Amino acid sequence: NLEERLTVGSRDEIGALAEAINDLARDLQHIRDTRQEFFANISHELRTPITYMEGYANVVREGLYETEEERQQFLGIIQQEARKLNVMIHDLFELSKMEEGKIDLTPERLDIAGLVSDCVQKAQLKARGKQLLLVQEMNSPLPDVQGDSLRLEQVMTNLLDNAIRYTEAGEIKVSVVPVNGFVEIAVQDTGIGIPGDELPYIFERFYRVEKSRSREYGGTGLGLAIARKLAELHGGELLVWSRPGTGTRFTLRLPAADT
Ligand code: ADP
């Protein structure tokens, strides 16, 4: 029973041992609590799309729609929620593999500027769709980076998607600069920003700022957890700066490859 504590009565080795066992019990209890919270979280997140799907399937079956257009719209929601569920399960699986060190990176020497340009290019269509300016600043010459190109593209795409998703007007600026032994890739937006007291949590799985609001924007709440993990697996880090109403900047720091 983890609730029971050993009484530390002496200052000798037995006392130290009792202390160590108490610490261990406390850690185990903490792991138990977080596991429980973790599964409660997952169940809730997976259940939400299912609830939508059930609800709208019922509406369509019972003929509770007014026009054919409305029927199509409801079917569209079902399809969309099914897709979301699929993405969520895929992302969760990826994340758990990463956390257990069970994903294999395929590192190679990369021209990071080229990789970033490609990602920016691909994001242009989405940015234009919201009438946002997406610009890129390069600071040459840049050192190469040792990394897995697909995974780094995944991180960049996530940061760019978020910047576009959480920005209503203005511009998104992507810069790549060398900083002693590292390359820093920054994605800066002029979007809604993130309140200071929520910043520490945004890399946690499923965490969303003002949850209901973010749900309208779509997304699974897993992107940043995966992105940070991938940055760490590359020996780098993912940092954030933000001010509500001003915008947000994510900085991906990656170690430069040996010259
Ligand atoms: P989601 O799929 O919800 O976007 P992420 O893990 O990518 O999940 O991001 C977690 C939360 O962080 C988002 O729900 C959003 O509230 C906040 N966030 C991420 N990027 C930005 C940004 N560029 N501007 C404002 N808020 C952001």
Blueprint of the fold:
Elements: H1 13-61, H2 68-99, E1 108-110, H3 112-129, E2 133-138, E3 145-147, H4 149-165, E4 171-179, E5 182-188, H5 211-217, H6 223-233, E6 237-243, E7 247-255
Helix pairs in contact: 1-2, 2-6, 3-4, 4-6
Overview of the structural elements:
The chain is α+β, with helices and mostly antiparallel strands. It has six helices and seven strands, in the order H-H-E-H-E-E-H-E-E-H-H-E-E. It has helices at 13-61, 68-99, 112-129, 149-165, 211-217, 223-233, and strands at residues 108-110, 133-138, 145-147, 171-179, 182-188, 237-243, 247-255. The strands form two sheets. Strands 2-4-5-7-6 form a five-stranded mixed beta sheet, with helices on one face. A hairpin with a 3-residue loop joins strand 6 (237-243) and strand 7. The longest helix is centred in the N-terminal third of the chain and has 49 residues, at 13-61. The termini are far apart. 22% of the residues are buried. The model has no long low-confidence stretch (mean pLDDT 92). Bound molecules: adenosine-5'-diphosphate (ADP). Adenosine-5'-diphosphate (ADP) is lined by residues 158, 162-163, 166, 189, 191-194, 202, 207-209, 214, 219-225, 248. Adenosine-5'-diphosphate binds next to helix 4 and helix 6.
Quick overview:
The chain contains six helices and seven strands, in the order ααβαββαββααββ. The protein has 259 residues and is α+β, with helices and mostly antiparallel strands. Strand 4 and strand 5 form a beta hairpin.
Mean pLDDT: 92
Rg to the nearest angstrom? 23 Å
Going by helix content, strand content and strand pairing, the class is alpha+beta
Query: Regions with pLDDT < 50 over 5+ consecutive residues?
Result: none
Give the helix level as a range of percent.
40-55%
Number of helices: 6
Strand content: 15-25%
- Strand arrangement in the largest pleated sheet: 2-4-5-7-6
The description of the largest β-sheet is: 5 strands, mixed
- Structure summary, number of beta strands: 7
Label the overall shape: globular
Our measurement of the CA-to-CA distance between the termini, rounded to an integer number of angstroms, reads 56 Å
